[in-house]
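User: We ran a pulldown and think these components assemble together. Before we commit to crystallization trials, I'd like a predicted model of the whole complex to look at. Sequences follow.
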Amino acid sequence: MSAPDLSAAHVGMVRRLSPADFARVAAVCHEVRTHPAREPLSLAGQPLDESLLLIDGWIGRRIGDPDGRRRRLVAIEVAGDFVDLHSLPLGRLDHAVVPLTEVRVAAFRHDDLRALAAEDPALAERLWALTLVDASIHRHWAFRTSALRAMERLADFICEMEIRLHLAGRVEAGTIPLPLTQDELGEACGLTGVHVNRALRDLREGGYCTHRSGIVTIHDRAGLNEIAGFSPEFLYLADIPDR
Amino acid sequence: MSAPDLSAAHVGMVRRLSPADFARVAAVCHEVRTHPAREPLSLAGQPLDESLLLIDGWIGRRIGDPDGRRRRLVAIEVAGDFVDLHSLPLGRLDHAVVPLTEVRVAAFRHDDLRALAAEDPALAERLWALTLVDASIHRHWAFRTSALRAMERLADFICEMEIRLHLAGRVEAGTIPLPLTQDELGEACGLTGVHVNRALRDLREGGYCTHRSGIVTIHDRAGLNEIAGFSPEFLYLADIPDR
DNA sequence: CGCAGCCTTGAAGTAAATCAAGGATTGTGG
DNA sequence: CCACAATCCTTGATTTACTTCAAGGCTGCG
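Assistant: Here's a predicted model for the assembly, 486 residues in total across the polymer chains.
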């Protein structure tokens, strides 16, 4: 039985791995599956023995009462993100992993990845680095929600997503997919859905960007970057892509 | 030249390593130094070739304008924390590392740690796990600042610190050191210093805890846990210590 | 066509920021 | 040991940002 062909999935964050390294990882993928929106892939505390690479769709990591007012999205993953590589050294996760859309994921058994890491310490360190970029993004989210105001937060969030989606090859002509409801944007940015609506209106009326039908059209990226004070250093990119 | 004796530093988060593993790591420590409060240990973006294990004192990770209004503490490290092991796979950091008090740190060259990891994949995975607990704490901070209100945030922060300091052996009879100013607490919890003052007063008058002269006295830990909705799962402890 | 989910807007209430002044603590040098 | 400065803490008054509550209008889909 041969591993599924993942060559088209060498995009986004996982492109930090060289083609050769990615091929070695892809070779131990045991399954590619599709999963429906909103039905959790895993729950907080659940023992896990595999990790998922997101090929298509959007996934959130969620903390808090499943329904209550105190629940938040603490991370969002897009194509090319190794969603829960964190579960390999940890064995379980502190949060639920929830598809925000229908998703296609490639599954890797921890044992297989562990064997790969054991025989190639340099590759192991690169996988480690992947998870540490996640940690850096978490720090940025903590900064965003605690230091910025509503409109700035959304601008910053959109700047982050624009660059990550660009790396994943999902951006076309200043148009980026963002298939989240305003309530979900609020969960990610620490705002109510109602206030997200107003902040998005401010961004629209300020001529920065428009969000409609799950798509953001960016009219003034420089302005968007400026109001957020956005700088992509926290993504640890070798080179910032021209767009 | 022999490595410094770090056996007394096998506390807190680093106690996740078995005594034998810790000894192997400690053996490659090349220096123990003291560093004064407030003078940065490293700045964002600076190339780094060593990592620090905090032996004594408090360290913060800071993002934002060095002085401006948009600056935040996105993490706080205490005795037994491997402060910037993140810089090993990443080579640099996205934030400044700043001692909040005078600190004593043990320094490890990346090359030495890398060699250790290469010859012992299981140890490498445990070091990896250490950094992923940091990531989990980041997620919790993002949750805290975006989902909780002022008093709840401080209660949650104090609950986290109480348990981490307990693991580090720094808690005595419901009394924990917390040598941060109210402005610094505000930077960590996403509040102004003035509002931290009022929230601390509420905690005091509610009979939960008192903060004075850099020391928190906990009067009602169950109550403190309850108003914060605190649960220590995100620290991935093998067993929750009795206190 | 009709329903469900999502978006939009208004009005009112609340939590936190800001501005400002004075008081307590800590550290320092005489 | 005391005087003094610097930093930190505390409190009040005011303003601002965000939430909450509520109602109505889209949009996409069975």
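Strands of chain B lie at 29-35, 50-56, 59-64, 71-77, 96-99, 103-109, 175-177, 209-212, 215-218. That may be worth checking against your pulldown data before setting up trials.

User: Thanks, that helps.
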